[in-house]
Amino acid sequence: MEYFLELSCSGLVRASIYALIALGYTMVYGIIQLINFAHGEIYMIGAFVALIVSGVLTIYGFSGFSILVLAGLIAVIYAAAYGYTLEKIAYRPLRNAPRLSPLISAIGMSLFLQNYVLLAQTPDFLPFPALIPDFAFMEPIAHIMGSPELVILVTSAISMVALTVLIKYTRIGKAMRATQQDMTMARLVGVNVDNVISMTFIIGSVLAAIGGVLVGSYIGQINFYIGFMAGVKAFTAAVLGGIGNIPGAVLGALVLGLTEAYAAGYISSAYEDVFAFGVLVLILILRPSGLLGKAVKLKV
What we know:
By secondary structure, the protein is an all-alpha fold. The protein has eleven helices and two strands, in the order H-H-H-H-E-H-H-H-H-E-H-H-H.
């Protein structure tokens, strides 16, 4: 039973990170039907910014949890600026172009950001400091769940609740829902669609950066390529839950994270990706639109 709880905790941690990244994919797709393949690189850039800032803060005498908070805050601001710039330069000029054009642009931006960080930093893995302290109250269950896992789960939960509140109860959230339902009608009733789309990219980038900082501190190392695999897994979670559906992205991340953890623990870590994508294929065969996705009826 204890081993099962350990695996469940590991799966929930994976799911939390996947969900933070998947929400960015699903929000952007829900509004402009674009798969932002450069989103994983925003996650990677957030981790690198946090690494650099944490090193500077350490030199100036900061320590412990204060470094995590300040480095995370600066990483979030930096990633938000990247997300905004990405949308404005690479996607907005192609908004009315054939569907393939922005897709190619997204892949191009992903490769550009990877190589930009590769040249600016190093191809090797860099050690990331353990910024999350050990909490005394976690000692009785430290063999099942440690302080880093708790911080990741709580931070992810708070981020998702905050996003839900923003989408449902704020002015920008209502504008985002209106734009998702009918962009043309939203323009007619006075919604600034361009600002809404930019804000969507910013929010998704903020969530991805939070995930990058938490994972860097949890795993203890990062490199320029971490965004690619994280992006693939998060995109898989978004599709699994129903691309464009926010609760679906969270549910898809939960299914994917737990599947990987149980497969690695009970079978072999070498086959965790096989089982994860096997579950994806099975679910899409049974529900082509995803777990919570809705089938779209086309009028002929």
